[in-house]
């Protein structure tokens, strides 16, 4: 029996409590209170204390301008608030490795780790909106060789020291006086996401990241606007998108990501390994019949994993993200099938050090983005992000990290 994937989409999405909150950006890795951590049940067989999980929730921005880059936001949808606004990913880095189209912005998490070189640190997630490309990505991740750049989901890590060319060394005041120290690179006039290194041959003003976006913009009305811009003596760079404004109608809706603590469960955890251990405690050494039952537990691993997954997300059904960078943190997998082994996780492409689990994206994000439940619509069980354990600084503004895609049983393929 396969897990009912419609159950997750059917989870009731409730509005967040209307609480007075400080506008100061919260760190995704803010520790849980000690008393909350004590309520957790041990997840591992060796009774290791469960790490403290933070969850990401979406809400409308409290005021305009709250999600601009100099306020170091965590956000989903819209356009990215690039941390380094000048040295953006470009070329093949900004495109799907399968169809070659520009990637669409999903979300970003402001996640400094206390290191001097990473006083500011943001992780960016982009993906191709094509389910066909995501399916190919999921299939090839089992055989992907180290350094293979062919991805439809890409993660970029950017970090800056406290003293840098882009922002004040003082924290934002959030009183409308905060400003970046310099302008960013000119962005694509259509998507507002990637560097506009191509210029309209007629007006010489509008910029584009790709020929596709230039063609779409031309058909959508720039053909007429271009003539007006040429004839207007006031034509200037002001025709480009305003900072923070989403020019493209294809962008996903924009939300602020707020960080909260995962609530402890009031009931016994349905740990996927607990059912089997309880059988052993009750009956001691298994006979042939007991061994048969235990084999059935193994055969039914997906359903056990799915039950545990549902129990955990039921504590906050509206969560779109789970974050924990502790050394013993583990992803919350929706299914037993489609999980990587340690050998499937590559080393850092830059320093060759180990990668560690940092956060994962939950399928509820698709609900907030208005993605329809249709055969060819974008869908996933979870997307797990692994980053350089040492958060290395290799004089590259945007370093690509590693994502593992887990799809539902009807689309999981493994060589």
Automatic annotation (TrEMBL):
<protein>
    <submittedName>
        <fullName>Uncharacterized protein</fullName>
    </submittedName>
</protein>
């Amino acid at each position: 029996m396969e897990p009912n994937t419609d159950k997750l989409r059917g989870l009731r999405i409730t509005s967040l409590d209307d609480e007075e909150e400080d506008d100061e950006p919260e760190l995704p890795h803010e520790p849980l209170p000690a008393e909350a951590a004590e309520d957790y049940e041990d997840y591992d067989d060796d009774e290791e204390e469960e790490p403290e999980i933070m969850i990401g929730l979406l809400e409308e921005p409290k005021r305009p301008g709250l999600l601009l880059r100099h306020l170091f936001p965590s956000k989903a949808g819209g356009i990215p608030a690039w941390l380094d606004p000048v040295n953006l990913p470009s070329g093949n880095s900004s495109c799907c490795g399968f169809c070659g189209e520009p990637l669409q912005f999903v979300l970003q998490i402001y996640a400094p780790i206390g290191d001097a070189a990473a006083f500011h640190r943001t992780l960016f997630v982009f993906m191709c909106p094509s389910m066909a490309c995501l399916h190919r990505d999921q299939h090839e991740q089992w055989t992907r060789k180290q350094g293979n750049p062919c991805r439809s989901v890409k993660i970029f890590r950017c970090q800056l020291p406290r003293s840098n060319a882009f922002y004040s060394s003082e924290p934002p005041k959030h009183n409308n006086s905060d400003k970046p120290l310099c302008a960013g690179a000119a962005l694509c006039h259509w998507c507002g996401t990637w560097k506009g290194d191509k210029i309209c041959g007629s007006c010489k003003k509008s910029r584009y990241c790709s020929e596709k976006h230039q063609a779409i913009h031309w058909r959508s009305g720039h053909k007429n606007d271009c003539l007006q811009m040429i004839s207007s003596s006031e034509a200037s760079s002001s025709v480009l998108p305003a900072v923070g404004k989403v020019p493209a109608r294809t962008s996903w809706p924009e939300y602020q990501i707020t960080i909260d603590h995962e609530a402890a469960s009031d009931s016994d955890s349905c740990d996927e390994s607990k059912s089997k251990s309880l059988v052993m405690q009750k009956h001691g050494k298994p006979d042939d019949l007991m061994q048969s039952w235990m084999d059935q537990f193994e055969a039914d691993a997906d359903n056990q994993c799915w039950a545990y997954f549902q129990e955990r997300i039921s504590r906050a059904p509206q969560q779109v993200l789970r974050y924990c960078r502790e050394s013993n943190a583990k992803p919350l997998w929706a299914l037993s099938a489609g999980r990587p082994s340690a050998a499937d996780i590559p080393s850092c492409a830059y320093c060759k050090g180990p990668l560690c689990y940092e956060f994962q994206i939950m399928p509820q994000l698709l609900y907030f983005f208005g993605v329809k439940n249709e055969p060819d619509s974008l869908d996933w069980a979870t997307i797990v992000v692994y980053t350089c354990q040492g958060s290395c600084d290799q004089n590259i503004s945007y370093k690509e990290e590693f994502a593992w895609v887990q799809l539902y049983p009807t689309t999981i393929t493994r060589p």
